[in-house]
Every structure is written in structure tokens, then in C-alpha cells.
Amino acid sequence: MKPRVAVAGAGAFGKNHLRVIHQSERAELAGVYDVDSRHAARVAEPYGCRVFQSLDELAQNADAAVVATPTVTHSEAGCELLEAGLDVLVEKPIAHTPEAGRALVETAACHGRILQVGHLERFNPAVMALSAVIGTPLFFEIHRLSEFSPRCLDVDVVLDLMIHDVDIVLALTGERPEEIRAAGIRILSEKVDIANVRIQFPSGCIANLTASRVSTERVRKLRLFQPHAYISLDYGRQDAVRFRVKPPMAIDFAALPVTKDEPLRLELEGFFESVATRQPPRVTGEQGLAALEVASEILAKIDEHYRLVEKTLGST
Length: 316
Prior knowledge:
This protein is α/β, with parallel strands linked by helices. The protein is built from nine helices and 14 strands. It is globular, with a radius of gyration of 20 Å.
């Protein structure tokens, strides 16, 4: 029997979730809830699905839910649905603070429910191909640049964009950072719009991440260096090329085998699989919380650097 899956939040992310759930053969679209019911009705119209008037009504008419509400409401909405017995996929970041994220993880464990976090890039076919050939990563250089949009100004660029790459680096290294250095500035909003961070891991691996939402172009690239190999990955094109040293003194390069697909479709199909089998999802609540905790450490380092700059400017 197909699970009835509803969506909480009818914004840009919510609309895409509705579309993919409606198209899936593994789930039934139960409906949508949004605090703006008239907007929810307009979004629901192409799919002929029900518009719920409350989160409680949604919970009574679904087996699972996607939480695509503003980040500051993720924990409250997610916990309410988990307590009602639903499995939940919550958009990234898992919550606005580590404490709120931890509440989600603990509530899911207490009620025996599936909790998946929507770190979409983990379902990017190029990233999945990279995961299959990862060895001992030594250095990451990652750029995630976007043109300015007022869509996500409730969070800074670290929680909006950089957290994707923080999650991927944590997954590929299997380690937590031992040192973080970071800097960021506010340009067009009251929150950090561009940031750079250097993360060192206990193994000696270094990750250098840059994220910006005030760029003139859209860039989504990851470069990974490991013994005898260099891999260049383009998130947007969903492709990756590996360069390897071959004895005695030769370099060969080849594209990694990638079957292109829509990451959101793969993410939701993975969620439906976990709901059906009760197996842990590809991105667990604990992993989503780990990414948020590191992102919060990065923000603390950015604040520390900002205070140093203010002090320097004040003395001149």
C-alpha cells in the first residue's frame, strides 16, 4: 500500500515536493498545508490535492510528511508531526539551531519514526559516483556561488548554501573537524552573504569552502585531491572527471560513470523506501544535526573574525 505523503509549506521548495510526489508511483499525494491557505490552494490546484487548514489536520490524513516551512519552524512542525506518528523528511538545514535540531532527532528516536534531512546534493548522481571511488581525501576545494535572491534571507549564506558542502565533506571524510577558521561579510542583507572557511580534520585532510549569494554567476564545483588522484566535480552539470597517475610517468583521465537524474526525485524515492522498509535514510537526522553543528561553529568563527576586523578599523 502506498504511503500517503503530505507537504507542510507551499513555498518554492514545497511546490517542487508536491510535483515530485504527485508524479511518483510509490506514494500518494495526501495534500498540502501552509499558513497562507489561499496560496496553498493555488499551489495545490495543478495536482488536485487537498488543502489542509492546520498541521493537525495534515497529521490526521497522512502517513508521512515533508516539512518545507521556514527554517525557524522546522523543529516545531517536525516534532509535532513525529509525535503524531508520521515519518518526516525535513528540508535542510534540519533546524535553525543545534538545540532545535537535537529535539527533532530525539523526538524521532522516541517515537520510532523515520527522520530524513533534505541535503539534496547527497542525491546528486555525480556525488554518488564520487562516493563510490573515494579513497583517502587529503584536500577539498569547493565553490558554491549564486546570484542574489531574496528567497532565503531568513538565514545566512552558511545555512543557506555552504551547509550542502559541509554535509558532503563530513560524509566523505567520516570525521568531525578539529579546527575551523572562517570569515564572512554582510553585503546586501543583515546576515552573512559571502563566507570562506578552512576546516582541518584529525586525519590531516583540509577542506576550503567558499559560498556566496552575491555573485554575478552561478558556480557549483568541488575539487578533491587524494593519493595519486584528482577529481573535479560539477554539481550543476552532474558530471565528474578523475585524473590519475599511472606508472611510470603518465596521467590518465576519465569521466566517472554518472546516470543523470533529478536529485529531488531520488531524494524522495529514497525517503519512500525508508518509510516502506524502516531502514535508515541516506541522510539521517543525526547527520543533518552534525552538519548544522559544524555550520554553527563556522558562524561563531565568522563572528569572532568580524569583531577582530571592527576592532582593527576602530583603532585606525
